[in-house]
Specification:
Elements: H1 11-14, H2 16-42, H3 49-74, H4 82-98, H5 104-127, H6 133-147, H7 175-182, E1 184-185, E2 189-190, H8 191-209, H9 211-221, H10 223-228, H11 233-259, H12 270-280, H13 292-311, H14 316-341
Antiparallel strand pairs: 1-2
Helix pairs in contact: 2-13, 2-14, 3-8, 3-11, 3-12, 3-13, 4-5, 4-6, 4-11, 4-12, 5-6, 5-11, 7-11, 8-9, 12-13, 13-14
C-alpha cells in the first residue's frame, strides 16, 4: 500500500507571522515598483534619465520639509508650520534680492537665520509656555502666512513689482542664486537633489547611529523616563524644531531660486505633501516610527504617482483623489499585515 504523499510545506505555511512581517516591510516598495511598471508600460519615456531626475527635483523640497517634520515627530511633537516657513523664506530671499539689492549669500544667510528664529519660536512656545505642539505650530503657520503678504501688499514679488509705498522693486535675481534651483551638476543632477541627498544621509546617520539620535527617539518615546535618565529633554525638543525650521527655510531658498520670484501662493500644498511623506515613512520597512529614509521614500512615492498621472494626462481634479486612494490603501495593507505579524 502506497504511503500518502505530502505537498512541500512553504515558508508562508511554516512561518506565517514572519512572512506577513516581511510582506508588510516590502509593501510600499512592491506598490512603488508596480506603479513604475504601469507608468512605463503606458508611457515609454517615464523611466528616461531626464524624467527620473525631474521627479527627484520635484520632490526634493517636499522631502526636505518632510525630514523636518520627521525630527519633530521623533521627539513626540508635530511641526505644522514647515510649509509657511518655506513660503515665508522664499519671499524673504526675494525681498532681500529685488528690494534690498542684496547678494545671493545675503539671501541664503538671511533665510537660514529666519529658519532658526522660527524654530526657536515654536520650541519656546511648546517648552516654556507648554502650548501643545500642534496648536503652537498651527499658530506660527497662520502668523507667517499672513505676515508674508504685508511687505508686498499681497502681491508676488519679482523685478518691477510695485510695493505698497508706491516704489518699484528694481533689483534682480543674480545668476549665482538662480543656479541653486536650476543648475544641474554635469548637466544631469539638479542641485536640490544633491542637497536632499546630503541632508538625508547626514540626518539618517545621526538619527540611527549616534547618541543624539537615540536621545531624540527616547524623548519621543517617554520624555519623563528620558529626563530621569539625565537627558536634557527640553533642549532636544527645541533643537528638533530649530532644525526643522532651518531645513524648511533652505527649502524655501531652493524654491525661490527655481521659480525666480517670491510667490505668495507657493506654500499651499507643501505642508500636506511633507506630512504625507513623513507619515508614509512609518510604513517603510515596517519601522512603525518616524525615520528619515522612510520619509524620503514616501516623498518619492508621491512624486512618482503624480508624475505618472500627469504623463498619462489624468485630469488635474482627479489627481488628489487617486493619490489619497492609493496612499490609504497602501498604508492600510502595510499596517494590517504588520499588526497580524506580531
Amino acid at each position: 500500500m502506497n504511503s500518502p504523499t505530502h505537498a512541500p510545506v512553504t515558508v508562508m505555511e511554516r512561518h506565517p507571522a514572519a512572512f506577513r512581517e516581511r510582506l508588510a516591510q516590502a509593501a510600499i516598495f512592491v506598490l512603488l515598483a508596480a506603479l513604475i511598471v504601469l507608468f512605463q508600460a503606458k508611457q515609454p519615456s517615464f523611466l528616461s534619465l531626464g524624467n527620473v531626475f525631474s521627479i527627484l527635483q520635484a520632490v526634493a523640497i517636499v522631502a526636505m520639509l518632510g525630514i523636518g517634520v520627521t525630527l519633530t515627530l521623533a521627539v513626540g511633537g508635530f511641526d505644522l508650520s514647515v510649509g509657511s516657513i518655506a513660503a515665508f523664506s522664499q519671499m524673504t530671499a526675494s525681498y532681500i534680492l529685488v528690494v534690498g539689492h542684496g547678494t545671493a549669500t545675503a539671501a541664503v544667510l538671511g533665510c537660514v537665520l529666519f529658519g532658526v528664529l522660527a524654530g526657536l519660536l515654536n520650541g519656546l512656545l511648546i517648552v516654556k509656555l507648554r502650548i501643545p505642539d500642534q496648536l503652537a505650530t498651527l499658530g506660527t503657520l497662520f502668523l507667517l502666512a499672513g505676515l508674508q503678504l504685508i511687505p508686498t501688499g499681497g502681491r508676488s514679488l519679482t523685478t518691477g513689482t510695485i510695493l505698497p509705498d508706491g516704489s518699484e522693486a528694481s533689483g534682480t535675481f543674480p545668476d549665482a542664486f538662480l543656479a541653486l534651483g536650476r543648475m544641474r551638476l554635469g548637466g544631469v543632477v539638479p542641485i536640490p537633489v544633491i542637497v536632499l541627498a546630503a541632508l538625508t544621509l547626514s540626518l539618517w546617520f545621526v538619527m540611527e547611529y549616534t547618541r543624539w539620535g537615540r536621545v531624540f527617539y527616547a524623548v519621543g518615546g517617554n520624555e519623563t523616563a528620558a529626563r530621569l535618565a539625565g537627558a536634557p529633554t527640553q533642549r532636544y525638543r527645541v533643537a528638533a524644531y530649530v532644525i526643522s525650521g532651518v531645513i524648511a527655510a533652505l527649502g524655501g531658498v531652493l524654491l525661490s531660486a527655481r521659480i525666480g520670484r517670491g510667490d505668495v501662493s507657493v506654500g499651499n500644498s507643501l505642508l500636506l505633501d511633507s506630512v504625507a511623506a513623513a507619515l508614509i515613512g512609518y510604513a517603510v520597512w515596517g519601522a512603525n516610527r518616524p525615520n528619515v529614509l522612510g520619509t524620503v521614500i514616501g516623498a518619492i512615492f508621491v512624486g512618482v504617482l503624480l508624475n505618472g498621472l500627469t504623463m498619462l494626462n489624468a485630469p488635474y481634479y482627479t489627481q488628489d483623489f487617486v493619490k489619497g486612494l492609493i496612499l490609504v490603501g497602501a498604508l492600510a495593507v502595510t499596517f494590517s499585515l504588520s499588526r497580524k505579524a506580531r
